[in-house]
Design brief:
Radius of gyration: 47 Å
Number of strands: 13
Strand content: 15-25%
CATH architecture of the domain at 308-480: 2-Layer Sandwich
Shape: rod-shaped
Helix content: 55-70%
Largest sheet: 6 strands, antiparallel
Strand order of the largest sheet: 2-1-6-5-4-3
Number of helices: 10
Length: 493
């Protein structure tokens, strides 16, 4: 599977394209060399035959037919290996001289050239071989054939063709191997950047893309991305610090204002004034709750709660929360269902977990109409402990499911209901503290309203401590290259 993904990478496809271009150029070069070499050897053979014919023609002109027969016999006698082929016949193909017995059969060109095989059919006593010759007619109706044994030339051509084929094969194999290695090296660098970027997007803001110190293109890209991340984290921390400072600074005067309004409420006798003071106290309480939630989320995101991690029975904690909220559900005539698997244990902060559970159950009751259904479940799947809350309420559109964990974000359908948009942000922060992930889905996908199911997956007790230590090691400044003052955040789904 990994090999297939490697073959689909753009770097491998680029290397494959380069391989095709390179192989084509090598093929054209070898083909040109073969054409020139084979053509040269063929031309050299033809020139040798032409030279023999020219010599015989001169002998014929000076000595006649008898002289021609004599010179052919002398040359045959001097060439025991029969590299040069001679045959002089009458018009009826009766042999007068030569080293083959009968006239060969073969395809004859207009210029008189013929290619044939030396075999017993022509009276050849040796092994079967290839030959090339030229035919012309002598005065008096005589026929003369002069040729050369080209079997070695043909064998040499085969050797060259085989070498070219092997050379092309080796060239393609080496080009493919080189392309794969080059692609693999490039893909590894890209995978490191992609994996690190994915983890940064999932919340590990202190991570940085590693460099090799080679100052190549990838190192420059990594350094630019790291500088961009440093700048983004700096700006984010500045915004967060301002908002947290505002929340902290305003909480005290708001608390004093609330207390003064409460004293006013207790001291006034007029019913209308008492009602207005009561509404002012309620608004002040809502503002204080908002500021307290902001500060609580800020503390969670700075990872200040690892010291409170203890063994917690998730099913018992959820049971306590259900007992607290069941009465609120009954006031709205809702069906409150529980499915709590026993002995589901995690390692975590009991108070934070209880607040997360309470927020999710409270939201489900708040956004589910009367006579609706609320379901709470605890179960264990593999190494995960799962807390799940489902309802038959207004639900959350798919396009907004990834945004509801942002601070102050509220779904359009719920803006008329009381709330500050911080509940799910707090839930997300608590889940991240416990190395959890949150999955949102519709309870009834084919119905209107679809309802909402929120499942929080957290590691069961045994593996959690190791995962926390691994996360802390990953976030150490000396191993990430990040700003030691910037906290890292774990991702969620």
């Amino acid at each position: 599977m990994k090999l297939l993904s490697q073959l689909r990478t753009s770097s491998f496809q680029l290397a494959l394209l380069y391989m095709v271009v390179f192989a084509t150029s090598v093929f054209l070069l070898l083909a040109f060399i073969y054409w020139r070499t084979a053509g040269f050897m063929t031309a050299q053979t033809d020139e040798t035959i032409e030279a023999e014919i020219a010599g015989l023609a001169e002998q014929y002109r000076g000595r006649g037919v008898n002289g021609l027969i004599t010179i052919i016999r002398e040359r045959v006698a001097r060439d025991p290996n029969a590299k040069t082929i001679y045959l002089l016949t009458t018009e009826d193909f009766l042999k007068l001289a030569g080293n083959i017995e009968t006239w060969p059969e073969g395809s004859r060109s207009e210029s008189g050239w013929i290619n044939f095989t030396l075999s017993s059919a022509v009276g050849w006593t040796g092994s079967e071989r290839l030959a090339r010759a030229r035919i012309f007619e002598v005065q008096g109706g005589l026929r003369l054939l002069v040729g050369r044994d080209v079997d070695e030339l043909t064998s040499l051509k085969r050797v060259i063709e085989t070498a070219i084929n092997w050379g092309m094969g080796i060239t393609l194999a080496l080009a493919l191997l080189g392309g794969f290695l080059m692609s693999r090296s490039t893909t590894r660098r890209i995978e490191i950047i992609n994996n690190t970027s994915q983890r940064i997007m999932n919340g590990h803001l202190s991570l940085r893309i590693p460099t090799r110190g080679t100052e190549d293109d990838f190192d420059q890209l990594a350094e630019n991305l790291n500088q961009m991340l440093d700048r983004i984290v700096y700006l984010m921390e500045g915004i967060r610090h301002v908002s947290d400072s505002i929340a902290h600074d305003l909480r005290t005067p708001l608390t004093r204002l609330r207390n003064q309004l409460e004293n006013t409420l207790m001291s006034v006798d007029n019913d209308e004034a008492r009602e207005q003071a009561g509404r002012a106290v309620a608004e002040a309480d809502q503002l204080l709750a908002t500021f307290n939630a902001l500060l609580r989320i800020a503390r969670l995101e700075t990872r200040g709660n690892f010291a409170d991690m203890k063994e917690v029975s998730l099913d018992e904690l959820v049971s306590d929360a259900c007992e607290l909220y069941e009465a609120l559900s009954e006031d709205k005539n809702q069906v409150f269902e529980q499915s709590l698997e026993a002995e589901v244990v995690i390692e975590g902060d009991r108070d934070l977990l209880f607040q997360m559970i309470s927020n999710l159950i409270d939201n489900a009751i708040k956004y589910t109409p009367e006579h609706g259904t609320i379901g709470v479940a605890v179960r264990k799947e593999g190494e995960d402990a799962i807390f799940e809350v489902r309802d038959s309420g207004i639900g959350i559109p798919d396009a907004e499911k990834d945004q509801v964990f942002q601070r102050f974000y509220r779904v359009g359908k719920s803006r008329s209901l009381p709330g500050n948009g911080l509940g799910l942000s707090l839930v997300s922060a608590v889940a991240e503290i416990h190395q959890g992930r949150i999955v949102l889905s519709d309870t009834y996908p084919d119905e209107v309203p679809p309802g909402l199911t929120i499942a929080v997956y957290m590691p069961a007790f045994a593996p959690l401590r190791k995962r926390i230590k691994a996360t802390q090691a990953e976030q150490a400044p000396d191993s990430t290259g990040g700003d030691p003052h910037v906290s890292a955040e774990t991702g969620r789904t």
